[in-house]
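Incident review: delayed structure delivery

Summary: a single-chain prediction request sat in the queue longer than the usual turnaround. Root cause was a stuck worker, restarted by the on-call engineer. No data loss occurred. The affected request and its eventual output are reproduced below so the record is complete for anyone auditing the incident later.

Affected input:
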Amino acid sequence: MTQNAKFKLSNPVHFLALGFGSGLIKPAPGTWGTLAAVPLYLLIVSFVSTSSYAYFGIILFSFVIGIYLCGKTAADAGVHDHGSIVWDEIVGFFITMALLPVTWQNVVLGFILFRLFDIVKPWPIKLLDKHVHGGFGIMIDDVLAGVFAWVLLFFAQPYLA
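Output delivered after worker restart:
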């Protein structure tokens, strides 16, 4: 991974793909990108329920636009899935939090579980990460990490009440 990638925060595509600049924070840009997702998530759920069509529409829109944002920013940087590209982490966190009550316990545990699956990349997440390229490839492994985190968080609900 090239550390000298040329990103321009003045470019709206780069700005969004870099998680509003959070992906440029070192170390652990993916963690910072996921952290940037938390206030955005809280803003969204102040208007719509996590079980609403609107919330799923936001996830779908964020995923589709993320394919373009991440692919274009990676191409501009000349590096596939540069660590500073964190829009995929934002979408993965949104997926983690779907259909769940908005509580501080869920936000904290969702954050931890999503980061765990995104970092460890168990099968088939690692397979997708290695073999699917472009903007879709950048996005899909984090989508699956979000699904894995959601499953554990869903089954943890009785213990968090």
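Verification: The chain has one domain: 12-160.
Action items: add queue-age alerting; document worker restart procedure.
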